[in-house]
Design goal:
membrane; three-stranded antiparallel β-sheet; globular; FAD/NAD(P)-binding domain; 15 helices; alpha+beta; 36% helix; disordered C terminus; Guanine Nucleotide Dissociation Inhibitor, domain 1; 16 strands
Length: 488
């Protein structure tokens, strides 16, 4: 990152947690700082349990990094790999994040602190599989880092790398459809809203996958079914320019609801704004002085809410609802909560300018189905081979990246997914991977100026097919035996 001009600044502390009773807790990746914070609520043995919680998170992290974020799962049989099956029973996939945290922390206060991270996935901690404790492990073991100048510095760096490699970025060129061959079995380019046709050997779609299937391709039963899959939550997000510093806020602040479970039920079952929301507040100028002019502040407030539901008789909000009223009510509630819990005063008067994103914004500007900010949900039945594939099943030369395909949501995960899809494209073209150190020298891509001279390679999948059949039988027997033990 540094070689591309991105300077990373470590956030310490990681978070300030504000509770409903005006108690506060500071979370840090520094164990010496965490020990008294944990023991204050959990007693002398609490810190040992915290370390055990991190150890479980480490196991989940290593499994996910090694077996999921570097591998594709194009079919059910791809989940039968021996390397995956031998480790999968050691990670936390059956119980929820909240259930797993409850095995380590005695107090509900700490259980909340270490499960709110499920919202990174747009999921409730009572529904998100326990394996996602890897998120907390990553933050507390490796720290939280902020790119000086804001996250767009990372985007700029990626763009510059692409330009050096010869990428031509055509901005402000919305795509209206994917161009198919006459028999609709191959993607051959795209059609822009301007009417211009661009021919291509490969079409790689980074629009949200559900949107792409339902708006850029011919309608099918599968495309309709995607729109019915569970989506992640939406949000009302405020972006405030403040005419003074709000000293009471740290860089990262989380405000937790008193009725924690009920607040998530409001979001994911009732599809609405919780009566008492848990929410996140970011003040980047605490880390990066370039984030706001001297003596002033820039504040981001993210309030998770239910996604849109256009069903006439369904729960939740519709795009036609009075969003000005809803936003106004949420703004008042958020400001009142921040002031009461932190001691800050007159926040509303200090807001010099404001921008707001709401579910309809996420849907209209970013093409996110139902305004779900993190794409499709990523529960067990929407992960690995059950998740929409990175390659279209019937249209050749058509691939996908992003939050709603494998491996899932979040910027780091989507970047890992981009590499997975790139490798899939190269494999389909029988082209060697430039970054593969394991490849024989005669099969490696050779760097020549700004272009790549690559050699085509072949594959032998006979043995792999028999392995798939064998491990499918093993897994089937294991599942049957487990069901007998559980249900008698």
């Amino acid at each position: 990152m540094a070689s591309e001009g991105v300077e990373l600044l470590q956030c310490n502390p990681n978070y300030q947690i504000f509770f409903h009773d005006n108690e506060k807790m500071t979370l840090s990746s520094d164990l010496a700082q965490m020990k008294p914070e944990i023991e204050k609520w959990e007693g002398k043995e609490g810190f040992e349990r915290y370390l055990s919680f991190l150890a479980e998170g480490h196991t989940n992290y290593e499994f996910s990094m090694g077996k999921v974020l570097r591998s594709n799962f194009p079919s059910f049989w791809s989940m039968m790999r021996p390397s995956l099956l031998k480790d999968i029973f050691w990670v936390s996939i059956a119980a929820s994040m909240y259930t797993r945290a409850s095995g380590y922390f005695l107090t509900d206060r700490l259980r909340r602190c270490f499960t709110f991270g499920s919202m990174y996935l747009g999921m409730s901690p009572y529904a998100a599989p326990g394996i996602y404790s890897l998120l907390q492990y990553t933050e507390f073991a490796e720290g939280i880092w902020y790119p000086r100048g804001g996250f767009h510095k990372v985007v700029d760096a990626i763009v510059n790398i692409g330009k050096r490699m010869g990428v031509d970025y055509q901005l402000n060129s919305p795509v209206s459809s994917i161009l198919l061959s006459e028999d609709e079995k191959q993607a051959v380019g795209v059609v822009l809203q301007s009417g211009r046709h661009i021919q291509a050997d490969i079409v790689l779609v980074n629009a949200d996958l559900v949107y792409a299937y339902n708006n850029l391709l011919p309608e099918t039963k599968y495309s309709k079914s995607l729109a019915k899959r569970p989506a992640s939550c939406s949000s009302i997000s405020f972006y405030w320019s403040m005419d003074r510093k709000v000293e009471e806020l740290s860089a990262h602040n989380i405000f937790l609801a008193e009725h924690y479970r009920e607040s998530f039920d409001d979001i994911f079952k009732e599809l609405k704004v919780p009566n008492e929301p848990s929410f996140y507040v970011h003040a980047p100028a605490r880390i990066d002085s370039t984030a706001a002019p001297e003596g002033k502040d820039s504040i981001v407030v993210l309030v998770p809410i239910g996604h849109l539901n256009e069903d006439e008789n369904g729960k939740g909000y519709k795009s036609t609802d009075d969003w000005n009223r809803i936003v106004s009510e949420v703004r008042e509630l958020i400001i009142e909560t921040i002031e009461r819990r932190t001691g800050a005063r007159n926040l509303k008067a200090a807001i010099a300018s404001e921008r707001v994103n709401i579910p309809t914004t996420w849907q209209q500007l970013f093409n996110l189905e139902k305004g779900g900010i993190l794409g499709l949900s990523i529960d067990f039945w929407n992960a690995l081979a059950f998740r929409p594939k990175t390659k279209h099943s019937t249209i050749s030369s058509l691939y996908f990246v992003g939050a709603s395909t494998h491996p899932g949501t979040g910027v780091p995960v989507c970047l890992a997914g981009a590499k997975i899809t790139t490798e899939q494209i190269l494999d389909d073209l029988k082209v060697g991977k430039p970054w593969s150190p394991a490849a024989p020298p005669n099969l490696r891509a050779k760097q020549m100026g700004s272009s790549l001279d690559v050699e085509r390679i072949g594959t032998n999948s006979g043995m792999e097919t028999w392995q798939r059949i064998f491990w499918a039988v093993v897994l089937g027997c294991s599942i049957t035996y487990a069901m007998i033990l559980i249900f008698g």
